[in-house]
C-alpha cells in the first residue's frame, strides 16, 4: 500500500477547502468527494490503496455518468468540486494529470443547468418578518429564551434589509458595525471587501438585542469589538459568547417560517429567500435601477441582478391585467 493514497490526498484537499472557503462550500465539496470515492470503488478502484498519480481523466467520465440522477445544478456543483480536486492533485501532489483533457471530458458530457428565476414569495417573507417582530415583543421569564427571541428578530431583519448571505451575517462582529453611520465593512463571497448598510429597523433590533446581552458580553473578559453580533443562547453555550453558526441560523429561519406559515411551509422560504427579497424590494422602490440594486446586493456581475428585474416590474402586471381583464369583460363585436 502506498504511504500516500488518494484518500489521504482527498482529506488534505478538503482541509484546504475548509480553511479557505465557507462552511456551506466545504460541506458541498465533502459530499462531492465522498461521491467520487464511492464511484471509484464501484469501478474497483480503492481510494485507500490507489496513489494520487494513478488518477486519470477517464475517472471524470465515470463520475459524470453517476451524477445523472441528480439535478443539473447539483451536478454542476459536484463537478466544480471534482475539478478543484484534480487541480489540487496536479499542483500540490505532483500528479501527472492532463487538465485540458479533464475539461474536455466535462465539456462533452456535463449537462447545462437551465436558468432559474429567483424565488420571491414577498408576502410570505413579510409574514415571517411580522412573526419574528411579534415573538420578540412578547414577554418571557426565561433569560435565554428572551435573548433568543431578540436575536432571532435581529437576525431575520438583518437578512431581509441588508441582503447578506447567511454565512456573512454569522461572521459579523460588533467591531464590524459603525453604528453612527449604520453600515459595516465585511468580507463577502469571493473574499471581497464590501460595505453593507443597515435599515433603521434592523439597527434598532440589533441594538435592543445587544443591550439585552450586555451583561453576558461584559463577563467574557474579551474586547467587545471581537464578539459576534449573533451568538448562541443554548445550554451548550452556557455563559460563553459563542458565534452562531449557519446550522443554528437556518434553524432560526425554519422556526420563524413554521411559526408564521405553518409546518407545511418549512423549506419554502430559506435564508437566501431574504436576499431575493432584498434585491427585489430595491428594484421596486428604485424604479428598476439595476446599477443601484447591483451595488447594494454586491453582485459581481450585473447579469445576476437582471434576473430579478422581471419580478419588480409592476407596470407589466398592471398592463397585462388591464389588457386581458378588459377584453374578457368586453362584449364581442
Notable characteristics:
333 residues; mainly alpha; DNA polymerase, domain 1; hpI Integrase, Chain A; 2 domains; three-stranded antiparallel sheet; 15 helices
Explain how this protein is built.
The chain has 333 residues and is mostly helical. Helices cover 59% and strands 4% of the residues. The protein is built from 15 helices and 3 strands. Strands 1-2-3 form a 3-stranded antiparallel sheet, with no helix packed on it. The model has no long low-confidence stretch (mean pLDDT 86).
Distance between the termini: 86 Å
Placed side by side, the strands forming the largest sheet appear as: 1-2-3
Shape: globular
What is the helical fraction, as a range of percent? 55-70%
Percentage of residues in DSSP E strands? under 5%
CATH homologous superfamily (4th level) name of the largest domain: Intergrase catalytic core
Task: Write a concise synopsis of the structure shown.
The chain is mainly alpha-helical and 333 residues long.
Amino acid at each position: 500500500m502506498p504511504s500516500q493514497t488518494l484518500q489521504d490526498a482527498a482529506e488534505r484537499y478538503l482541509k484546504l477547502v475548509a480553511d479557505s472557503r465557507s462552511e456551506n462550500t466545504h460541506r458541498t465539496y465533502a459530499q462531492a468527494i465522498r461521491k467520487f470515492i464511492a464511484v471509484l470503488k464501484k469501478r474497483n478502484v480503492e481510494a485507500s490503496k490507489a496513489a494520487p498519480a494513478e488518477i486519470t481523466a477517464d475517472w471524470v467520465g465515470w463520475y459524470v455518468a453517476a451524477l445523472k440522477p441528480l439535478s443539473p445544478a447539483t451536478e454542476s456543483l459536484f463537478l466544480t468540486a471534482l475539478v478543484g480536486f484534480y487541480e489540487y492533485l496536479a499542483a500540490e501532489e505532483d500528479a501527472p494529470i492532463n487538465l485540458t483533457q479533464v475539461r474536455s471530458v466535462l465539456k462533452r458530457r456535463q449537462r447545462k443547468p437551465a436558468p432559474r428565476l429567483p424565488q420571491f414569495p414577498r408576502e410570505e417573507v413579510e409574514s415571517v418578518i411580522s412573526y419574528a417582530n411579534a415573538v420578540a415583543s412578547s414577554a418571557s421569564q426565561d433569560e435565554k429564551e428572551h435573548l433568543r427571541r431578540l436575536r432571532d428578530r435581529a437576525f431575520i431583519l438583518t437578512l431581509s434589509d441588508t441582503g447578506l448571505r447567511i454565512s456573512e451575517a454569522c461572521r459579523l462582529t460588533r467591531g464590524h458595525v459603525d453604528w453612527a453611520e449604520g453600515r459595516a465593512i465585511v468580507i463577502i463571497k469571493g473574499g471581497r471587501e464590501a460595505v453593507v448598510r443597515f435599515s433603521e429597523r434592523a439597527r434598532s433590533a440589533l441594538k435592543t438585542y445587544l443591550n439585552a446581552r450586555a451583561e453576558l458580553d461584559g463577563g467574557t473578559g474579551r474586547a467587545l469589538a471581537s464578539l459576534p453580533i449573533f451568538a448562541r443562547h443554548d445550554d451548550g453555550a452556557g455563559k460563553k459568547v459563542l458565534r452562531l453558526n449557519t446550522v443554528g441560523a437556518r434553524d432560526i429561519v425554519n422556526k420563524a417560517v413554521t411559526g408564521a406559515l405553518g409546518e407545511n411551509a418549512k423549506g419554502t422560504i430559506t435564508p437566501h429567500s431574504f436576499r431575493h427579497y432584498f434585491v427585489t424590494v430595491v428594484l421596486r422602490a428604485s424604479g428598476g435601477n439595476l446599477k443601484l440594486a447591483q451595488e447594494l446586493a454586491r453582485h459581481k456581475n450585473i447579469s445576476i441582478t437582471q434576473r430579478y428585474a422581471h419580478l419588480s416590474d409592476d407596470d407589466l402586471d398592471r398592463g397585462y391585467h388591464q389588457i386581458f381583464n378588459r377584453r374578457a369583460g368586453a362584449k364581442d363585436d
